[in-house]
Amino acid sequence: MDAMQAVQAGLEGVVVAETRLSEVDGERGRLVIAGDDVESLAGTSSFEEVCARLWAPYAKEALPVSLQAALGEARVRAFGLLEGLGDALEAGDAMDALRAAAAHVPAHPDGERDTFLMLTGALAVFTGAWARLQRGLKPVRPDPALSHAADLLRMVSGEPQPERAAGLEAYLVTVSDHGLNASTFTARVIASTGSDAVSAVVGAIGALKGPLHGGAPGPVLDMLDSIGRPEQAVSWLEAELRAGRRIMGMGHRIYRVRDPRAAVLERAIERLEQGGLRTARLALARAVERAAEDLLRQRYPDRPLRANVEFYTAVLLDAVGLDRTLFSAAFACGRVAGWLGHVAEQRATGRLIRPASRYVGPMPG
């Protein structure tokens, strides 16, 4: 390696793959998933349809005619794995449980299509089962006739909640893919070694668990609870900034403007309210977002720090009835669609991912 070659810390700006799956335009605040803006996808497409669009470009086998039915069947098969998970779902953290449980999913010997279906179904089943077991309740058997989003919500709550399922559907679609983020890159690195899709997803879950990636929606809700009322937003935020603490849900590594997913999820909450599911947190969140944006602009005029996806994720997932301990696991239930699309793409178009490093330690002698 050339000793003068520049080190790109965090690989920022380094292009390591071409993809047909999603495009993130941080300057313009635009996210394109499988050829459509996320704003149009989240309002018109089901999670199953988005899975099909993300998997189809590199699928070695034809996808099922009805992906909803195929995912329903996969959830039922995944439910049959619960008895063989040992103590995986006894972990106190949902992501620890999900990572351990996902490792038990068998890689289908006859083709990756069935492994993709099984992994996607299993993450929903394991999330629902963990949520129930944490409350001392028995896991709920999947209903294969329901949509993936509706059944995930049912497996968590124990009863159908069709009026809330649309909100969760919008969330799963919105977070299904997002360029070469940390967990997706992890999945692609593992896939590039020739390893199986189960290993790639287990590694991706580990990356998503990190608070700098997918582990922050819960703390956003904690922040809103601490603020309490819109009129207290400015004083509370000022105190946090004086103490040197970051404002949760504000700022993004890529976006220089407001995260387009924040707008999509904000509208999804509005639709829930129009349907009769009122949440006091929407007005509070909007007030906090405005106050935080103004304060951060004054404090860091050269650093655009605006609402990211986690800001309204917290409000939406709370509104549909998910406990904050499930937020990162719900993220994984949506992002698995993109992880698997990238696994297939890496296999079809990529090579072993093996970046270099520069040694700066002592030399012998």
TrEMBL record:
<dbReference type="InterPro" id="IPR016143">
    <property type="entry name" value="Citrate_synth-like_sm_a-sub"/>
</dbReference>
<dbReference type="InterPro" id="IPR002020">
    <property type="entry name" value="Citrate_synthase"/>
</dbReference>
<keyword id="KW-0808">Transferase</keyword>
<dbReference type="GO" id="GO:0036440">
    <property type="term" value="F:citrate synthase activity"/>
</dbReference>
<dbReference type="Pfam" id="PF00285">
    <property type="entry name" value="Citrate_synt"/>
</dbReference>
<dbReference type="InterPro" id="IPR016142">
    <property type="entry name" value="Citrate_synth-like_lrg_a-sub"/>
</dbReference>
<dbReference type="InterPro" id="IPR036969">
    <property type="entry name" value="Citrate_synthase_sf"/>
</dbReference>
<protein>
    <recommendedName>
        <fullName>citrate synthase (unknown stereospecificity)</fullName>
        <ecNumber>2.3.3.16</ecNumber>
    </recommendedName>
</protein>
<keyword id="KW-0012">Acyltransferase</keyword>
<comment type="pathway">
    <text>Carbohydrate metabolism; tricarboxylic acid cycle; isocitrate from oxaloacetate: step 1/2.</text>
</comment>
